[in-house]
Task: structure prediction
Amino acid sequence: MELESLHRKSPADNEINWVTAGFMAAFHIGAIAALFFFTWKAFWLAVFLWWISGSLGIGMGYHRLLTHRGYKTPKWLEYFLTLCATLALEGGPIFWVATHRIHHQFSDLEGDPHSPIDGKWWSHMGWILTGKSMHHDTTTLARYVPDLAKDKFHVWITKYHYVPMTVLGVILLALGGLPFLMWGIFVRTVLGLHFTWMVNSVTHTWGSRRFATRDLSTNNWFVGTFLTFGEGFHNNHHAHPVSARHGIAWYEFDMNWYGIWALKKLGLARHVYRVKLSHLPPVPPLAANASAMTLAATSSSASSAD
Result:
């Protein structure tokens, strides 16, 4: 099987992933150093690349297309969105998708890779640095991503996911020197990572709940609107994970959805699944009043009973 070429073995629960930790430390140091190389051109370049990697890549590509198959595209476009996602430094598609599918299966229960029940620091960043949450063995990956495991491109880019970022870094250095490199790679990547991790930590802790899901997911308007291109409307997403649109109310600005909508208008997206608020049944009164504390206690009790 193609996936076996990844040769991935799961680490021990408390084992520090030194390679990942090293890169995280280096990028954060680079982001701080970039403050001494500020130019407006470098700043706007970073914003543009943040949209490319965070919206086209992670939101529209890894998440709504590859993980949940909320819509379909031609293979060349699927591969392009995947390449955009590798620029976010969040790993290759097979590991990212497997981790997110596991999250949905065990959301805020035993087995969830990044639940705030295990600690807010853990849900935000700790799960990346230690244990097996982001570093599953090949057998686990094959079980959760059988669709991607059969695709030679996705297997290859997962193995060499660092190549696009490296090539981009060389290009930016050649075009704009250190300001372009520091802001287009380090600042943009570090902020993008923390914004993505806030979906795991913040939107499973603070926000409103429209749907009575079995997890802690909330709709956080600030995270959804300003930081994640619509990914922060997380309670909507957990209630209807296949929906290509997460911001289902008029005031929930979902930029990733408008990107998918534009692809559909251009004939590049088909079988787009969308939930409309007007077509849904009334919200149970409990959903609006349920607190994260109550849900956490319920989830813990359920885990203990198992």
Summary: Residues 285-293, 295-306 have pLDDT under 50 and may be disordered.
